[in-house]
Amino acid sequence: MMRAVCVDVPGGPENLLLQSVPRPNPKAGEVLIKVHAAALNRADLLQRRGLYPPPAGESDIIGLEVAGTIHTLGPGVKKQWKPDDRVMALLCGGGYAEYVSVPEELLMPVPSNLTMCQAAAIPEAWLTAFQLLDFVAQVKEGEVVLVHAGGSGVGTAAVQLVRLFRGVPVVTAGSPEKLKLAEKLGAVVGFNYKEESFAQGVHDFTGGKGANVILDCIGGRNWESNVSSLAIDGRWVLYGTMGGRAVEGDLLGKLLSKRGHLLTSLLRSRSLQYKADLVKAFTGRVLPYFSDQPATLRPVIDSTFSLDDIAEAHKHMEANRNMGKIVINVIPQIEQTQ
């Protein structure tokens, strides 16, 4: 048996229940991880409310990314993993628990200079940002990339990756503190969407040319400003709808006038092969930059909570107060270092 966070009835954070449930057994090609830390994502809030169910056949337990140590290898594991290896993993679910079983293709080694808490903040957020920028938008050197929610987990990862790819990161955020963080990570300029027009800001910054790429987790309410901000032949990549799904007005006509590309992407529902290719590309092209000296890339941790305080962690994210990732220490940090 193991402790895990369960949701018997969809609803608010108070519906998150810490229960004793059977420990999973690794299937063929899977590895059982003893979870040290997990991290929150916006999708977790939606799943808790019953709005984003896991893919068929996957765990009902919430949680899309973890870091921990290998406990057991399932039959037929091909790579040279061994018990007690420090790993981090992308999940379809099951992260808010003491153990989780993961296909070996979705494992990555934890860089030696990172704690488990830091490592847990990497898989979902950084693989999402990498997928959007590289696999979907195919960002090129010198391109201007507008990153909405620049102080979020995906946002802070995207800013750093745009820099790594020699692009020009521009951000929006809702507070001076979040803008300052994004600029510290490499954003060239930032706009407070609560106080100014980011479309005008992008127009002024680019000399009227616009952003070549927009990473958009907001959706509905921003569509006119996004189209206005988009360069001719630009790529608008939609990966969330925090600002609503409904659109009213001449979206298609205005997008057509820019010859704009509207691209959409989700990660959780992708095939295992797609995720395996993504993890392999990220491990080869990006992961080394977390451990070079001084480190080029770093996960940004906003706060940490214990598994017992998972409801408070969800409330913190729902209040939109976090800058970077919210991490759940499944094993207390003191025990992790022993």
From TrEMBL:
InterPro entries: ADH-like_C (IPR013149), ADH-like_N (IPR013154), ER (IPR020843), GroES-like_sf (IPR011032), NAD(P)-bd_dom_sf (IPR036291), Quinone_OxRdtase_PIG3 (IPR014189)
Pfam families xrefs: ADH_N, ADH_zinc_N
Keyword NADP: yes
Keyword list, A-Z: NADP, Oxidoreductase
Domain Enoyl reductase (ER): 11-328
GO molecular function: NADPH binding; quinone binding; quinone reductase (NADPH) activity
PANTHER family registered for this protein in UniProt: QUINONE OXIDOREDUCTASE PIG3, QUINONE OXIDOREDUCTASE PIG3-RELATED
NCBIfam families, per database record: quinone_pig3
Entry protein name: Tumor protein p53 inducible protein 3
